[in-house]
Amino acid sequence: MRNPYAVLALAGASMFMAVVDFTIVNVSLPRMAVDLKLAEDALQWVIIGYGIPFGGFLLLAGRLGDIIGRRLTLQAGLLLFVAASLTAGLSSTGGQLIGARIAQGIGAALITPSALGIVADAFEAGKKRENALGIYGALAGTAASVGVLAGGFLTDGPGWSWIFYVNIPIGAVLLVATIFVLPENRIAHPGGEFNAVSALSVTGGLLAGLYALNRGVEHGWTRWTTVGFGALAVALLLVFGLSEWRARNPLVPRALRKNLPVVQANLAAASGFGSFLAFVFLTSVVLQQLLGYSPTKTGVAWLLTTVTAFVFAGLTGAVLANKVGTRILLALASLLVVGAAAWLIYLPADASFASRVMPALIAAGMAVGFFAPSVQIGALADVEDTNFGAASGLVETSRELGGAIVIAAASTVLLGSHSGFLHGVHGGYGVIAAAAALGVVATAFRAESAVRAEVLDSAAVVEPAS
């Protein structure tokens, strides 16, 4: 029996590395543009080249872990991620860098659901698993802001190539450690197979949908490319839905669709956690363009959110999830995002960081501290270990897709404002607050899993006297 806490450390570090790479490049873009002579469109692909394949392959990657083994899937993801990071650091052209970022995104999609499934599998259901998911959630919740900080220091120091090179020794150590720390590769779903139509249609639909969202923000929602890719996404996702309805081996197992806490956690991840990701995006813009912060100073400002999130995530996993329940915590987290965004809706042009921005950053940190472990605990509630990968991939997809949608909506309002930048910022925060409020609605009803309901029903049956 391997040490479960060593397993947690390995899986958490692997996930942390993958999530950090979402934001670590943001502050490096101006330097990349100069060194590689990148146009604005190409520069955008440095970001979305990672985000689109990451979000598009998560559901497929999660189920792959159930079928071929989560350790093997994690190892494949780490190997691809390290190789792609080396290629990205050595890039001398924009095309080479973008290709490497796409490969990184696919590697990250293999890493994150496998890592979460491995953690769930290493701990027994109950308080021990909730504590572990609290620690894991704390890492997940702080990774994005750490990425901003690390990107600033590395770009201002050894140069932007090092935001990729730093992954190589870390990833290599993690890859070797999987051999000694993780249990032998166990196939959780023996004899399982992919429904090819479901796998291809949902992956293609998510990729097309994420690309359409990006095109809509950058080039307008009525452009033929935006409409075309949006229509393709809808068509492919409809095919996915029909295929799943009829399939003997659906990509999203029927047990997950009937598990109401799982459904509720995924709705909260899409609306509430997605709104938090949009809050990070918009507030980073405000710090740099309105308050005039440098990339490094922006990263330091986000440390408030990082530290607060880590403290509250640990508290949630260790105490609150068991005593209060994930439904209440998810509702509270969504309310905190509503409050943080609403606090900044009327942000003045001469805003003070201490009195106007700092309270919102602390509230956002509390929100993600409640969100990160609660979403993961809820997403794995009463889920059989044969479906841990699918459940992990589903909640990661919900979170990333929700974030992409809310960021696209907030960006459209920000860029489309005819009354100036500040008015656009106010509108963007209004969109985020409204989206987070949907997370409160999603958690308004008490959810009980079908598994638990069946147990209660059977316990209530009284045999008639003979």
Order of helices and strands: HHHHHHHHHHHHHHHHHHH
Terminus-to-terminus distance: 49 Å
Approximately how much beta-strand content do the residues carry?
A: under 5%
Number of separate strands: 0
Can you summarize the main beta sheet? none
Radius of gyration: 22 Å
Approximate shape = globular
- The whole-number mean of residue pLDDT values reads 84
User: What is the oligomeric state here?
Assistant: single chain
**How much helicity do the residues have?**
over 70%
Summarize the structure.
The chain is mainly alpha-helical. It has 19 helices and no strands.
What does this structure look like?
There is one protein chain. Residues 451-466 have low confidence and may be disordered. With 466 residues, the protein is mainly α. It is built from 19 helices and no strands. The chain is globular. The chain has helices spanning 4-23, 29-36, 40-68, 70-89, 94-122, 127-156, 162-165, 167-181, 196-219, 224-246, 254-258, 260-289, 295-301, 303-323, 326-343, 353-379, 388-416, 421-442, 450-460.
